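I had to read the description of the data format several times before I understood it. Each protein is reduced to its one-letter sequence and a matching series of backbone shape codes. The format is easy to grasp once an entry is in front of the reader. For illustration, here is how one protein appears when written out as sequence plus structure tokens:
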Amino acid sequence: MLEIILTLSLVCTVVLLFVTLFNEYYQQRLGVSCMPTTPKVRAHMMGLIEEYAKDGHANIVELGCGWGGMARSATKRFPWLTTTGIEKSLFPYLFSKLRAIGNDTNIRHENIYKYDLKDADIILCYLSNQHMEGLEDKMTEELKPGSVVISSTFQFAKKKPDKIVPLTGVYDTKIYIYVF
């Protein structure tokens, strides 16, 4: 019995080490780690989706959905809208895909720079300044007029936000809203 427990412990340790190292590889390769949005920020972003969804927007896309919390929240709160999460890092993608079982959240393993945004109405982001700068021209070219980008913490380099929502608390941050 002790032998079985030791073998299982060793297998679990090796698997966890592999997952950790593989995730670290993706973080280094992509230049960002997956950080969940705080509940307070998520709640405000859901309120902003509600505000802009009234304008006929039907397709929500979260770029860099990480562990899938924001995309799942949008699907639960707005089941009549289509929500798609895009994640390139393998383990967060797989975790998000598992979390999406039983609801209509569409999780895709794709590069955010290659994903076609032409049908997106509301874009959610919690990325980095580098990623926002890299996406700015893509969004300007691909998004249809009236599409809305809601970004937590990080803003575009050139485009000025149409609205800024400051949030205070443990982490003071801002939500930037851009209407294209």
The mean pLDDT is 88.
